[in-house]
Design a protein that fits this description.
The complex is a heterodimer. By secondary structure, chain A is mostly helical. Chain A is built from 7 helices and no strands. Chain A has one domain. In chain A, α3 packs antiparallel against α4 and α4 packs antiparallel against α6. Chain B has a 6-stranded antiparallel beta barrel with strand order 1-2-5-4-3-12. A 6-stranded antiparallel β-barrel of chain B has the order 6-7-8-11-10-9. Chain B is of the alpha+beta class. Chain B is 33% helix and 30% strand. At the A-B interface, α3, α4 and α6 of A face α2 and α3 of B.
Amino acid sequence: MNKQLRMNKGPVIIILQFIVLLFLQLLLFNNIQFSGFINPYVYVLFFLLLPFTFSRALLLFLGLAGGLVMDLFMGTPGVHAAATVLVAYIRPAVLELIAPHDGYEANTLPRISYMGLEWFIKYTVIIVFAHHLTLFYLEVFSFSHFFHTLLKVILSSVFSIAFIILSQFLVFRK
Amino acid sequence: MRNLLQFILKYHVLILFILFEIFSITLLVTTGSYHEAKFYQAGQRISNSFSYKLENIRDYLSLYKENKRLAAENNRLYNLLKSSYKIAYVDSAFRGDTISSRYYKYISARVLNNSVNRKFNYITLDKGRNHGIEPEMGIICDEGIVGMVKSVSDNFCVALSLLNPKFGVSAKIGSSGFYGPLSWKETSTDKALLEDIPQHVSIIIGDTILTSGFGSIFPEDCIIGVISDYKLKGGNYYEITVKLSTEFQRLNHVQVIKNEFRQEIITLEQTAEDE
């Protein structure tokens, strides 16, 4: 695929990715209700896959829109939106934190094939954990079952991270 | 003014972030239960057609289990038939009009959507106003009680699951008949708490917990679960942990209960209070 094509198709691909992840989340991952502790929210992958050079403001708008759509489907007004806006806000900082020595090369994307497995795991772990932490505590909206919620956050994060990394090998293999 | 503009330009990302977070959290805090149910329905309407297809597949896959359950249910119902009993006193009072003596009516429904892992769990059913469903009807399945209808559209309804802090039911202990309010124990997907049972009542682990029939939502003596644990709370009352008999994770077919006299009872109770 040449560069010109990718530039033009960019928005379409991003929207398609969102729709695919939305359906996967609703039809597959929302049905994993193992003892109530493991609820992976794999749709965060959408925010992980966005290109490096994405305006921070636009990222925030996408975060709000994406979160609200999720909320609409899951019937949780504001919970997912708050978590995805946070993810959109911290993503540039996280990228800076784990950047390679000579920065990110032009025309690369945040994928295992470009950045290596170790980098991608670091990136996924930070973003997914931040997302799940916000999400689960906002959902409960109190600290009354603090450790119960924390266990939920950790177990669900582990599963989400595993699914996300696995999906990278399945979809974006060379 | 220029300074302000410069400030906004410089920090526009942070400002947007804060605005968006305030918006989301306001949405979360201000959405009352009514709107929440409406909001849920809006999303549900879009995904319902999908759920239908998915549910069909799931139905098919669980046919074996479902058959066994139906056989057990049939067996139980056969045992309840009049012909299974020997009537000893034929000269006792008999009311010929069966319509007027019918108290509860059951409407069978299928579960389209169900969650167990949220703080507020809801269940979507494939029956609505057109089938005679109204808000505040109780829902049971053959294993035990399930929840209560919350809001209704023409063809669907959304119900509060028992696994929802907004749901409460009056329950009693099977052996002694003492009753108290029962609500979900939020840290577990299969436990509920029964409160306000006085200290002098003897409690046995494994005893059944049944509905008391108060509130005219559920008939009396529907099974809720069994006692799994108890402790004294505040010195005078027991807080009893109940292991729910309904398996919410694989809920499929349920019965919605219509109380034919509910309106009459409520009106009467209100007049009594007003007088």
